[in-house]
Amino acid sequence: MSYSQQVFDNLSQRYSYQPEFLQAVQEVLTTLQPALDKNPAYEKNKILERIVEPERTFSFRVEWIDDKGQIQVNRGYRVQFNSAIGPYKGGLRFHPTVNEGVLKFLGFEQIFKNSLTGTPIGGAKGGSDFDPKGKSDNEVMRFCQAFMLQLHRYIGATIDVPAGDIGVGGREIGYLYGMYKRLTTKYEGILTGKPLNFGGSLARTEATGYGTVYFAQEMLKARGDSLEGKKCAVSGAGNVAIYCCEKLYQVGATPVTVSDSRGAIYDPNGIKVDVLKQVKEVERASLTRYAELVPTAKYVAVADYPAGLHYVWTVPCDAAFPCATQNEVNLEDAKTLLKNGCKCVAEGANMPSSIDAINAFLASGIAYGPAKAANAGGVATSQLEMEQNAGMTAWTFEEVDGKLFNIMKNIFLNADETAKEFGVPGNLVLGANIAGFRKVADAMIAQGVI
Questions:
Q1: Catalytic amino acids?
Q2: Residue 450's pLDDT is what?
């Protein structure tokens, strides 16, 4: 039995109740064995056993009062997974599905994603099972203040710098930051994704969506192709999906779908980004509202999706951009995309494709950009925000966007060259995993057993 399989089997027995975490670990470990064989020091130093366990995990009770004066109780978490190459960095997710296993999967992915950016940041993730949907601004504020009352003990500008994720946007970051400042009296870059008027970075809002498109462009460029003139299926309707759509138009492509938890939109004339922003960023409404505002749009409720499929992946397209959440592309979705002529998949969400779907994409030979590489633009730009905060300066949109483009290009080149090094050209899953792993593993060895 291989070293990587042995570690995974032991982990599976220990954490059988955390399926998302085990899926993320399996996706990485199944590709690392060639690197482990090439450098026996990794096994000698028990790097896999160490890297799959968080350095520390905090869980806490969050008590807050709703608008009716009733006490509400939620659970909060922070998983500080690995700090070998820099302070912990990773978002906060507020969603009813949040639990320790979900955050461990996200934090584990973050280790390698952050390593790939080439910037000095470690991996972490946190959040709560609090649902901001349907809550008033005052309720969201009170929850964020109660959450930060607990979290502030474990973070710091050179310790752990959280950001946003699903359910945590500029509003939530503002409330969290205000409470941190009140508790500590420190005005420092402790959170990223802040509004521009108190330390936020231009282009941070756009970064994950833009970066995913930049990565797709690099994949296609290496094949003598581009996104220009391509019809694209996009899932999600949050920050990543919105700015993925915006950048697709800028490079000459046409996004024709978006989705949320209730249903999906298909517009053969192209998604109207200004309307999508109004519906999701201003009104915080369902996509049924988008259908009301755009006569050419077709709305399909989740209940009406084809059996076993996500509707957006049934729409014929040249390129697909999963930008919603984990496991939104199953094997049948992947087969449908391939059957309909999709030649490029770039993941804007975290682990949106099942392992079977990933294997189908790899076997087909299409351009496939795994999440930890393709969506790294968000955390990369968060690190650029940290740099600006540390220097008490602000860069222009063009400066940040230019740095983002170069980071995404270098991530592709690193993953592509690593795949070639190990004899599987075009396999960016193996290339990204090994490239991200080696940097962290080498740092762990250099720092000793601590």
A1: 125
A2: 79
